[in-house]
């Protein structure tokens, strides 16, 4: 399929037709996608994206970056002055009055500017007049991107260079106007002396667009073969008789029709390039579009020649369609993205293949494996946490399909940990994750000293950057053996055996996983636990988190967060120190040390955690391109009672810096406590990926 629009001249009683060069106007159309093959189901074009070249639209577009090499326009048969030579034996062709020339009329430099030296180089400004009513954002963007005058506007040029650029831009304007249906435009350009108060020449284009040509008829042939789906498919092609001969709208309609066919069960459909026959006498055009539907199909089997990573059965499990469902190209594209999201492939192709029964289409899956093993390391330092080094080894498909194994070790001032994690993505169904963990750790913090062995497992529905979910849940189990000491025990160690069944549910109504700018999030976590320490007792940990994001302008977002937690049952002294609530740090109340907020006990005035938690955060995110600043205020408190005491809130404030990378914002926050306790630092620094909440 040629990505273009074929324009022909229509003359009553004359069989002669000739192509006019309108399609090259759309070589850098920002709002027109490439011709879409129905099987690929590419996403709809984004009008905010930068201009892209569009291939194969009839003729080569001149290189506007080379002002000295100008590709002349081929002679337009409509504007040709000399009649074509008659064919021997043919009837004489009817004479047709040629419309007004559209060649830009550029006055000689000496008629416009009184230069004492024609070689003198001057800067200039460019102004278009007469097209305010038709020059929309797309028209202006195209001209600015392709104009050689615009490209050289910041540099000095002599009169000969300016005139050459004016000629090229005059031809460009003519083509842009034709793309909107104005075929008899008059374009006059001139160079004038600098206006008072300026040292730049004034380059102006005075444009008279003329009458916009309209579509006299629109014929979309071939859709009758789609039977009962014909009406819906015809509605997908918006251009109709009486509409302007607008190349952008016609090509957008062609793409919309191709997409609709691919979404309606026609994987082999083809939409030929639209053809417009122009009648300059009537200032009208006839539009013809030929469609070859290729037959209605339903999904058949998934075929794989190489099942080293996973087999066709697993691919079918993660697909959002079942055999027998009507073919939809968006389902195929969704499956392709899901396979990419596994992290096991470097490239994937999904090709519809006719099953041979006239009813179904098989999907041929081709994969190229990605490196499956990763070794990672991390060095860091945190205020209140000390130095920390971490190393991990991971095999992402050690237990096919999608069963990964990760061995991790941490060596730090306050933590030494070794762990093994088993994780199976897309477990039994799409987006389910099965996880198992065995870890041994020795953690020494101001709040407690714990030597812990943990065995845990969970199944969850996760959200990720490619597929952000509205609802996310997790159900798991934990068995913990921990030898711990804290200020309540006076340094004596106590052994805890703990069984927990944590359950969580989160609703994410925000617009972005790592950098939300509007919407809200609401989540809850409940963990019933049994503890064996001298005696058996039970309690339940409950935590609720909520955050909201409100855009104030294109650059400013106000974000707020709150968190409440409580432990139902037992007393704070009985509960293992590592299972209590704590506050303070980069993901809590900034300006304070990690776990430093709350009641303190003992000779060293160490934090002991508590049974209830309350936290609040408010920040303003101001963005400047790839960077931003974030002033913030946080507050929070830990209480040993069932409910938190708000009169004891600790407040921190500060300023953050953001760098907005392609994979998410990198944040650096510097905070200070407003009403510190004894021993709190004056300044705390936090570095991480993603916003604070």
Overview features:
globular, Ubiquitin-like (UB roll), 12% helix, 17-stranded antiparallel β-sheet, mainly beta, single chain, 693 residues, 41% strand
Quick summary:
By secondary structure, the protein is mainly β. The protein has 8 helices and 32 strands.
Account of the protein in words:
The structure is a single chain. The chain is mainly beta. It has 4 domains: 1-38 and 213-296, Roll (Ubiquitin-like (UB roll)), CATH 3.10.20; 62-74 and 99-208, no CATH class; 300-368, membrane protein fhac (Ubiquitin-like (UB roll)), CATH 3.10.20; 463-472 and 496-689, Porin. Helix content is 12%, strand content 41%. It contains 8 helices and 32 strands. The chain has a 17-stranded antiparallel sheet that branches. Strands 1, 2, 7, 8, 9 and 10 form a 6-stranded mixed sheet that branches. A 4-stranded mixed sheet has the order 3-5-6-4, covered by helices on one side. The two termini are 48 Å apart.
